[in-house]
Amino acid sequence: MELNHESTIREWQQAMEQGTTTSRELTLTFLKRIAQFDKQGIAVNAISEINPDALHIAEALDRERSEKGSRGPLHGIPVLIKDNIATHDQMHTTAGSLALADSYASADSFVASRLREAGAIILGKTNMTEWANYMSDHMTNGYSSRGGQVLNPYGPGHFDVGGSSSGSGSAIASGFAVVAVGTETSGSILHPSIRNSVVGIKPTVGLISRRGIIPISTSQDTAGPMARTVEDAAILLGALTGVDEQDPVTGKSVGLAHSDYQPFLDKDGLKGVRIGIIRSHYLEKCEEEEKSLYEAAIAQLKAAGATVIDTVTLPCENTEWGPNVLLHEFKSGVNAYLKTLPASYPIRTLSDVIAFNREHEEQALCFGQVLLERADATSGTLTEAAYLNQRVLDLEMSQTKGIDAALKEHALDSILFPSVQGYGIAARAGYPSVTVPAGYTSSGKPFGVVFTSTAFSEPALIRFAYAYEQASQLRVPPKMTVEE
Fold it and tell me: Exposure winner among 3, 55, 322, 361, fewest CB in 10 A?
């Protein structure tokens, strides 16, 4: 089999073990493709920065493989990471903000350190919706003042690229690396994965350390894999897990996390499984062709042996979700991150960011910064009654009276959502979701389905998603041409 930018981790590893290619050659393959399509040609603008040491790291890993053998499935594999994930190297960590454009992190994030330990090559950083789409109430998905606008390779300038891990989604769809890491507070892995027809895993909050990731929300933030196949996403997930003494949330994962999720890749993984189908107002928000694609996905689940429970409703569906949790947690989280920057860097607080943006209004405030300003108006102490009451309500309605209630009532293994609808409930609950490509509309717009369940159910969700993917095989690479 001839290898190319669509080849999987397993295929690349087999070739490197057989000596028919090297990590250096693999890295060059992706650098050439980035040069061809990122800033010219279709110009998806998914990459914010390339690691200048990427080729040197690849060559060192090739030598290590020849002398000591492979570290594991990610040895020598180029990975892209979102530009809010800190790396202690020659790359900046900016969250897409001009205020942080010249900043270097003081240390690797937990995610970056785990990738390096696994032998992965951090090829570069991906552009993103600025401040993870928590800056303005009307910012275009995929836009940042530092990096400009990310485009969707399936319809550049026509189809939404999704937010805020837009660069990661666009880059993997475009074939700029084997896999990527995104981050999610509410939909920021799932949304761009669906829009760019890739697989996205939004893990349980606590499965992966948040240390070194520019935050929005203490209660909802998590990093997660984005890939072209469920297998590749599962491999990447296993490399990112682990208890981090500097992030207490990871203590919840003891005994529940896995360092290898490949054993859960089962083509028959849907047989005898009970899947609850969500319709109600979630499906109403979809286009007519998307509704048909959802029905086709449901039929595929049945054909693969699943028992489909139709129609499942969530007790919390009509809940009025307030903005108070993110609004309050953003200030304390951002201030905590900024204080870790080298002492010489002048931006130390959220207030400093706001002031910088005002001083550079023409470049930095194309969409304003109303959310930054609202967040900065809070105390930053998380003592406000509005915040505490909303946090308690969010947990009750998303968990006890939400996902857990539906799972229990119908004895379900998973719930299925259509397209980009419904991710906010799992986000508030801190529960995992996996999205898989599920076809395209007649205009070529990607569609996906989302498997969701309770905390630390990643093994089951990966099994269901893999079985569906293998049975349906619906993903088609983008044409990477500019439509006239």
Answer: 361
Interval 220-239: pLDDT, tens: 999 999 999 999 999 999 99
Helix axes 9-18, 230-240, angle to 10 degrees: 80
Task: Report how far residue 169's alpha carbon sits from residue 190's, in angstroms, rounded to the nearest whole number.
Answer: 9
pLDDT of residue 484: 38
What lies within 8 Å, CB to CB, of 26 at 6+ separation is 12, 16, 58, 76, 77, 78
Nearest to 223 by CA among 211, 328, 248: 211
Round to whole Å and give the CA distance between 351 and 42. 38
The answer to whether 160 touches 391, Cβ cutoff 8 Å, is no
3-state secondary structure of 253: helix
Residue pair 77/110 in contact (Cβ under 8 Å)? The answer is no
Average pLDDT over the chain, rounded to whole?
96
For residue 401, what is the DSSP state? I
Total residue count of the chain as it appears in this document:
484
String of DSSP letters for 131-172: GGG-S-SSPPTTEETTTEE---TTSTTTS---SSSHHHHHHH
Active site residues: 82, 164, 188
pLDDT score, position 242: 96
Q: What are phi and psi of 307, to 5 degrees?
A: -95, 120
Residues of the chain with pLDDT under 50: 484
> What is the b/e burial string over 213-242, where b = at least 16 CB atoms within 10 angstroms of the residue's CB?
bbbbbbbbbbbbbbbbbbbbbbbbbbbbbb
Helices (H), 19-165: 23-37, 54-68, 110-117
How large is the greatest C-alpha to C-alpha distance in the chain, in angstroms?
62
State the number of CA atoms in the 13 A half-sphere of 469 facing the CB. 28
10 Å CB burial of residue 344 (0-12, 13-18, 19+) is: exposed
pLDDT at 167: 98
> What is the rounded CA–CA span in Å between residue 47 and residue 69?
31
pTM, 2 dp:
0.97
> What pLDDT is attached to residue 319?
79
The secondary structure element, H or E, covering residue 222 is strand 222-227
Type of residue found at 159: F
